[in-house]
Design goal:
The chain is built from nine helices and 15 strands. The protein has 273 residues and is an alpha/beta fold. The chain has a single domain, classed as 3-Layer(aba) Sandwich (Rossmann fold). The strands form five sheets. A seven-stranded parallel sheet has the order 3-2-1-4-5-7-12, sandwiched between helices. Strand 1, helix 1 and strand 2 form a beta-alpha-beta unit. The longest helix has 18 residues.
């Protein structure tokens, strides 16, 4: 019999994980339910307890619910309270939390790995760290994801094509990205091996903003975006660092798309919202 996997949050990443998790008996949950998903507000102890009564006991849980673009209150509810409730209700399940590389605050272009300092200025990233600590204390796994992209979703490509892209100052700020399929397969790799600890999930070739737009300009035979000031109002704060993925690669995972441009042909065939 296939082991049971609970995917708490069936958004862009969670749906991809569900599509690829053929070796598991899958249960997916969303806050509102419907479309084959169980309804569960992760911030509610009762709803998480009710969910446990309805589903097979999960061997592994992937907590990849979204904050719904909310602020600190939403982050605390979804990530901190959500992790607390899942750990309390399913103490024998291995919990994987999909966090973010936004917890790295570096602005000097340096390489960062899982041992690098994390002192983010945004409260949302601080709350992610709080949720991470809960999961790690329970011998769970934290997957720090770089910027997700894939068919129908690429912020860099959308901004370039709609003319809203801006090269910030000299364009040297590093973009760290991961294809949604690679992110899903990395998560399932960690689930299969139940590897505890923190892992950066990013591709092999972080790229400068200028280099990225130069390659897009060449690909589409379009002019480079205009140069402007750096965007210090970004939701996850302005950072400039090169996120390294050596640790998860050493466990046997390899990305299908080592570079953003390895996936560009497939991205251009899907409309960007």
């Amino acid at each position: 019999m296939k082991p049971s996997l609970l995917i708490a949050g069936a958004g862009y990443l969670g749906s991809e994980i569900a599509n690829l998790a053929t070796n598991y008996q899958i249960t997916t949950s969303t806050k509102s339910g419907g479309n084959g998903h169980e309804a569960c507000d992760l911030s509610s102890p009762k709803q998480v307890s009710d969910l446990a009564e309805k589903i097979p006991h999960p061997e592994v849980i992937v907590h990849c619910a979204s904050s719904g673009r909310g602020g600190a209150e939403a982050y605390h509810a979804v990530f901190v309270k959500g992790a607390q409730n899942l750990l309390r209700t399913f103490p024998n399940s291995h919990l994987i939390l999909t966090s973010s590389t936004s917890v790295y605050h570096q602005t000097d272009g340096s390489g960062v790995d899982e041992t690098s300092p994390t002192s983010p200025i945004r409260e949302t990233s601080q709350l992610l760290l709080e949720a991470e600590k809960l999961v790690l204390k329970a011998d769970g796994t934290v997957a720090r994801l770089a910027g997700l992209y894939g068919p129908g979703r690429s912020v860099v490509l959308r901004k370039f094509l709609d003319g809203s892209a801006v090269i910030e100052e000299s364009g040297q700020r590093i973009l760290n990205q991961i294809h949604v399929k690679d992110a899903a397969l990395a998560t399932l790799h960690l689930a299969h091996h139940k590897i505890s600890g923190i892992f950066n999930i990013t591709d092999d070739h972080p790229i400068s903003q200028l280099k990225c737009y130069q390659e897009l300009a060449d690909y589409f035979d379009k002019p480079l975006p205009l140069t402007g000031e750096k965007n210090t109002s970004r939701k996850r704060a302005w950072t400039h660092k090169r996120v390294l993925n050596h640790k998860i690669r050493e466990t046997g995972w390899n990305p299908i798309f080592p570079r953003y441009f390895d996936a560009l042909d497939s991205l251009t065939s899907a409309p960007q919202p």
